[in-house]
Backbone:
């Protein structure tokens, strides 16, 4: 579905991504883990057309999307849930959801999708009238996910969805990520909570200072001693 090849991205002459290649197969959850500054968010922003790469290729369904603007990329079926949620605080929950469908003209389909979002996130239906800025962090993350789903993406990219959330809320968010994937949406997930991310991932990449250091199934990386020590807080015996 998505193929990134030899991607180089630099900020002010410093390479944030140093020629990395990543594959995201249709229908799978692919996770990128790594420390702060590894280049994870840069990769998502570059795929989304928000950052221009120096070189390399980005293909989606065998067509190049490198150089397209974000609106055209969304219209192709890719969407991004940004780090920090970025909901519109002075708009209601329902208004935020409707903004997610801004490229669509099918009023009946939009209404049906809002119902579907409410089934996935009952809390949002309870608070559909409430200003998004008054929601809790977990509720704002649910709203950010719901808003992204309103564009009917085939591929949804998520940047640190668990950041700053309580452990019980994080568990809910990852259960929802699974459900989104089971409903047929491919997921590319950037996440510092390596333990949770690897548990849901079909395939995972470890990014270190702009390079892919390791890749494998989520299960393989969960059991890797080096990964356990570096990212899961488990010391070698």
Residues:
């Amino acid at each position: 579905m998505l193929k990134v090849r030899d991607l180089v991205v630099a900020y002010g002459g410093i390479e944030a991504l140093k020629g990395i290649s990543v594959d995201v197969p249709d229908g799978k959850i692919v996770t990128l883990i790594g420390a702060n500054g590894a280049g994870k968010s840069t990769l998502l922003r570059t795929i989304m057309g928000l950052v221009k790469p120096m070189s390399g290729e980005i293909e989606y369904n065998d067509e190049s999307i490198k150089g397209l603007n974000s609106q055209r990329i969304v219209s192709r079926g890719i969407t991004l849930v940004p780090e920090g949620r970025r909901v519109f605080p002075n708009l209601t929950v329902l208004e935020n959801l409707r903004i997610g469908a801004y490229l669509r003209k099918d009023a009946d389909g939009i209404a049906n999708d809002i119902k579907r979002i409410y089934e996935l996130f009952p809390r949002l239906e309870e608070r559909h009238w409430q200003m998004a800025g008054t929601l809790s962090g977990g509720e704002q993350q649910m709203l950010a996910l719901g808003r992204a789903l309103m564009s009917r993406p085939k591929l949804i990219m998520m940047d640190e969805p668990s950041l700053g959330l309580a452990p019980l809320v994080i568990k809910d968010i990852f259960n929802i990520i699974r459900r989104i994937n089971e409903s047929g949406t491919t997921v590319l997930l950037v996440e510092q909570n390596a333990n949770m991310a690897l548990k849901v991932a079909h395939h995972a990449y470890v990014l270190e200072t702009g390079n892919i250091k390791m890749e494998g199934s989520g299960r393989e990386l969960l059991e890797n001693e080096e990964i356990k020590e570096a990212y899961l807080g488990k010391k070698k015996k």
In short: The chain has a mean pLDDT of 93. Residues 180 and 186 are 8 Å apart (CA to CA). The first strand starts at residue 2 and ends at 11. The two ends are 41 Å apart (CA to CA).
